[in-house]
Design a protein that fits this description.
The protein has 1 helix and 4 strands. A hairpin with a 5-residue loop joins strand 1 and strand 2.
């Protein structure tokens, strides 16, 4: 199971999401290049509302798929 932990900035907005897997020794920062959000494996959310964390992850995944213009 996976637990998602929101890290908030000074304005109480999510600036990072940490992922803690049951078998892992410690949490790691969600990386959209390496990770996906699988609602079937989620055991919990903390630091922010579930919807806010899922929205942040979705936006992060979208940004990682957007090609960058190097003009």
């Amino acid at each position: 199971m996976v637990h998602y932990i929101a890290e908030l900035d000074e304005s109480q907005e999510i600036c990072a999401v940490w992922v803690k897997e049951k078998s892992a020794r410690g949490p790691y920062v969600f990386d959209p290049q390496k990770h996906i959000l699988n609602p079937k494996t989620v055991s919990g959310y903390s630091g922010a509302q579930k919807e806010k964390i899922e929205e942040w992850i979705s936006k992060s995944l979208q940004r990682s798929r957007t090609p960058y213009y190097h003009g």
